[in-house]
Amino acid sequence: xxxxxxxxFEEFLKVPKLDEMKNILCVQPHPDDxxxxxxxxxxxxxxxxxxxxxxTVTDGSAGTLDESIMGxxxxxxxxxxxxxxxxxxxVSELIWLDFEDLGSYTVxxxxxxxxxxxxxxxxxxxxxxxxFLPYEAHPDHTKCGLATAQAVLFYRLPKILGxxxxxxxxxIGFFNSSKPNTIFxxxxxxxxxxxxxxxxxxxxxxxxxxxxxxxxxxxxxxxYKTNHAVETLKILPPIALHVxxxxxxL
Length: 250
Ligand SMILES: [Zn+2]
Hints:
The protein contains eight helices and seven strands.
């Protein structure tokens, strides 16, 4: 859809390129979400020298059909898996917020933790799941995306934590977005690193599932008419996160 004055808004809401960012915070609901959705982008950015920190909101304790490992046992397994995958992708640091997977924690509780981390780490870009994805039914995903977007909107306000801080966040990028505005064609090397990282999440992906994932990202290359596997983001400036109806189309 072409909206009237779109070019004017694009100019007004112009953002720097993600690959110019040097200090990037990736906030995910569960261990594996970033690797699954944008592991190739992470591989590319770390290769280019960016420092990437993962923040995982939940403890990942519910992601199983096997009741005997559900809970703290699975949580420890998934943390080890994420550590292993992070090494492959060149991720510098892992922060765990340890909210209960599928628990009754609130967006506000997560938001204050993310504000604390933004103030400490001073990222120039923050990436997270798109909480506005139509039909997204997983509450950990909607809460994580909303809490992170709100933290990017409010991190400088004394209301949240007292005091204030300098403005550092230049862009917010949403993965799993139904309205992506930035397409990343992965090199074969970055795609293979992503798949290798995903294979570390053994508690989540068996061989058949890994093959399905590889096919999905490759089929996307036909949708976007490229010869490479594709990952996407909706990248916005923080100012776009409040009272801009046109942002959906940008
Ligand atoms: Zn998840």
